Amino acid sequence: MAISILKRAGKTEEEELTFVDHLEALRWHIVRSLLAIIFFAVFIFIKMDWVFERLIMGPLQNDFVSYRLLCRFSHWLHIGDALCMPAITVKLQTTAFSAQFMGSITIAFVGGFIAAFPYIFWELWRFVKPALKPSELKSTRGSIFFVSLFFFTGAAFGYYLLGPFTFNFLSNYTIGTSQILETKPTLDDYLDNLVNIILGCGIAFELPVLSYVLTRIGLITPEFLKTYRKYAVVVILVIAAVITPSPDWSSQMLVFVPLFLLYQLSIAVSKRAFKAMEKRDAEEWD
After folding, report:
1. Residue 233 and residue 223: Cα distance in Å, rounded?
2. Does residue 285 carry a pLDDT above 70?
3. Residue 46: pLDDT over 90
4. Where are the domains of the chain?
5. What is the dihedral of CA 269, 274, 279, 282, to 10 degrees?
6. Helices (H), the chain
7. pLDDT (tens digit, 9 = 90+) per residue, 236-265?
C-alpha cells in the first residue's frame, strides 16, 4: 500500500513537473515573440517621421493611392466621378504634452506586432506542435503562410479601402449648413480608429482558417455552416458595424461583402477538410 502511494505521489510529481515544463516553454515562446515585436517597434520608432507622414497620414492625404485609383477606375467605367471622393481638409491636433510621444509609441508597437505577426504565429505553432499527431501535423502544412496571408490581406483591405472610405466620409460629414461646427479630431482619436480598422479587418479575414481548424477538430461541418448561413449574415453585419467607425451604410457594405465572400470560402474550405477527414477515417478502418 505504501509503495502504491509512493507510485501515485511520484506520478503526480511527474505530471506537475511536466505541466511546469509546458509553462516554461510557453513563457519562452511569449518572450521571443515580444522580442520580435520590440525589434520591429524600435526600427519603426527610428523611422517615425517617414512612417507617420507616408503611412499613418496616408488616408488623410488627398493624393492617397486609393483615392487616385478609385477615381481612375470610375472614369474607366465611364460613370464620371461616381467613385471619386471629395478632398479632406481635416488637420489633427493634440491636447496633451505627451500626446505625440505616446502616439509614436502606439504606432511603433502596433506596427511591430503587424510586422512580426508571421513569427508570432510560428512561435505559437511551435508550442502546439508537440501535442499533435503525425496525421494532424500533415494537415498543418502551409498553415503559417495561409494565416499570415489572410491577416495581411485583411490589414491591407482595412488600410487601403475601408480606412479611406471611413475617414473621407467622417471628415466631410456636416450637420446643417452653418459653419458653427468644425471637425478637429485628435491624434489619439485618429490612431484608435486606424488601429481598430486595420487589426479588426486582419482578424476578421482569418475566418476561412478558423473554419478549417474547427472542422478538423470536429466542432463544425460544411452542412452546419450552410444551415446557419442566414444567422451568419446577421453576425457579419454586426461585425461590420463594429469594425467601421462610420455609421454610413456604404462603409459597412464595404466590410460586409468581403466577409460574406470569406464565409462562402469557409464553407468550401470546411467541405474540403471534412472530405479529407472522411478519407483518412476510411483508410484507418481498412
Report:
1. 16
2. no
3. yes
4. 146-171+183-286
5. 180
6. 2-46, 48-51, 65-76, 99-115, 117-128, 134-138, 143-157, 163-172, 187-204, 207-216, 222-227, 229-243, 249-285
7. 888 777 766 655 666 677 778 888 898 899
